[in-house]
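Write out the 3D structure for:
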Amino acid sequence: MMKKIHYGLDAPLVPISYLVIGLGILINWVFFHQYAAAGFVLLYALLLIAGGLIFFHTSFRGKFIIWDKILAKTDISDDATVLDLGCGHGAVLIALSKLLGPFGKAVGVDLWKNADQSHNSLEETKRNLEIAKVADHTELVTADMAKLPFEDDRFDLVTSSFAFHNIKPNKKRFEALSEAHRVLKPGGKLIIVDTGNHKTQYINYLEKGSEFADVSSENTGFNGWWTGPWMASYVIEATKK
């Protein structure tokens, strides 16, 4: 039997809570009619259920569509050295690895927290890389994104997929951005896909000090919704000077 890659569910407690609470309210409304404001309660329950289902779509399908579009227009040399920050189960790392030739290398960094992604572990990611047949030119490193164990100017491309918003507090998030800049080669590209209200902070930091050129951002649309448009996602790209 062919082994299957498992990428896990992002922030698993969030969609499960939405679905459980929404279904609980709906069941009470249908069978017990315990609510006075019946119309409002029904709408609230349906919104929770819809939010949970949208979250599942983004985690299992939407984010892959986003990255397929990004990588399709990103020029990557087949002998490049690339770094994926907060690689999790290796979805982006594997996609990057398949663009590289035998002399290219893809490195993934993570702290392997289950709160960020279900069943997130170094062993699970190694398994995925082996199944995808990219283990020979990939490397996994357990490290903090705000304190990377790499020399300056090492990578041609640095990516991060829905990892930066998990870094707290803001000061440490900026340290992670600074580290991404440090390990990039001059002319190297940084691509961040994230959600939350940090987009302006990222852009302002990247533009500050003229360390990056061509800083741009773009919304991802429905495929980047985490429960709804109030938790939309965006792509930020910048080139190190």
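The two ends are 49 Å apart (CA to CA).
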